[in-house]
Amino acid sequence: MYLKNIKINNFRNYDEQEIQFGEKLNIFYGENAQGKTNILESIFLCAFGKSFRTSKDKEMIKKGEDYSKVEVEYQKKDRAGKIKINLSNKKQISVNDVKIKKLSELLGNINIVIFTPDDINILKNGPSARRRFLDMMIGQLRTNYVYNLNMYLKTLEQRNNYLKTRNINNEMLSIWDEKLADYGFKIYTYRKEFIEKIKGEIGAIHSEITDETIEIKYKSDCSDIEEYKNHLIRNREIDKIKGYTSAGTHRDDFKILINGEDVNIFGSQGQNRTAILSLKLAELKVIYNDIEEYPILLLDDFMSELDEKRISNFLNKIKNIQVIITCTRNIDIKGSKSYKVEKGKIFSWQI
Fold first, then answer.
1. 214 vs 89, 124, 191, 195, 342, CA distance in Å?
2. What would the pLDDT profile of 286-341 be if each residue is shown by its tens digit?
3. Residue range(s) defining the domain that contains residue 44
4. Exposed e or buried b per residue across 273-308, where buried means at least 16 C-beta atoms within 10 angstroms of its C-beta
5. What is residue 299's three-state secondary structure?
6. Which of 159, 215, 261, 339 could form a disulfide with 349 if both were Cys (CB 3.0 to 4.6 A apart)?
7. What is the pLDDT of residue 350?
8. pTM greater than 0.85 (yes/no)
9. Is the model more confident about 316 or about 249?
């Protein structure tokens, strides 16, 4: 699949801009703080209905304005499509000119894999960043996953609220425990499936970028539904003291090993970045295998802290898909389309 064009109005530092994309490599270059990443954010918004940079929609609206509009046209192997998003006091989303009621109706129309400088924190930060990575990947491909995740989180919130009350009844906890175990095991099943798919791709991908070995290991409390129920029961007294649920799929995690060692602990900055790039490329291949077409790859400032060999090896692997890159300098690659960005304007481009 690929994006044909995007129109943005009052988005971040842009007044009004229309961009026609090339079907392969698109390079947005310019100095820092000119608006390059804002282009990627507008695309991401059309795929997920939210930003990868902020949880507040109003921050995407240009200062001094009370609304923002983004419209993108895309082409998949079997159909063309259009998504419109209006941001104001209320967010409105339409797919092919039909307003949607649930965000889940948007997911999967445009499939995206994104890499940003902050993504190195997927490995460096806590487990929540790694769970978010899994949630974004699986949510694009399995709508039931999004439903089960939302129901799990709703049930978890209810259980946690009850744990903060006095005179807690274990029979009441049992009701929530049953629901948590049911939704949690379904979430685990999806995550386990996709972790295994990543395992099947990431080793070969990483070996083509560098001569180091890589592996991924998944940890969950929910690998056995009955054991998870027993775990919840065993932890009840602890949970009552803490006031929250201490076990469950909301604590799932995975780690990546480079040459047998946890890259989060022992890896260099370059190894961390290369590991994330390999993880993202594996995600891209997993999505391709699932829907039989490549997603769009967004790369924000991806050349930072990578040597020329790693950059070259990486770019060789993304020749046949639509890639949208931001960087501080233009990259001379045959068949690419370049756009210069300055002060919220794309004032020249060349093929």
1. 46, 16, 19, 14, 39
2. 999 999 999 999 999 866 656 666 666 667 667 779 999 998 888 777 778 899 99
3. 1-111+296-351
4. bbbbbbbbbbbbbbbbebbeebbbbbbbbbbeebee
5. strand
6. 339
7. 55
8. yes
9. 249
Beta-carbon contacts of residue 193 (< 8 Å; ≥ 6 apart): none
Q: What is the CA radius of gyration of the chain?
A: 22
Question: Would you say 175 and 157 are in contact if contact means Cβ atoms under 8 Å apart?
Answer: no
What are the residues facing 83 on neighbouring strands? 72, 95
pLDDT, position 319? 74
CA distance linking residue 62 with residue 68, whole number of Å:
7
Residues 260 and 128 in one domain: yes
Looking at the 3D structure of the chain, how many domains does it have? 2
Residue 94 in tokens: 């339409």
Copy the structure tokens of residue 163: 């744990």
Which pair of structure tokens corresponds to residue 153?
A: 């989180």
**Whole-number Cα distances in Å, 36 to 48, 59, 127:** 19, 16, 29
User: Is there a single domain that holds both residue 302 and residue 188?
Assistant: no
Query: 155 and 270 in one domain?
Result: yes
Strands 25-29, 337-342: pairing kind:
parallel
Q: Is 270 found in the same domain as 149?
A: yes
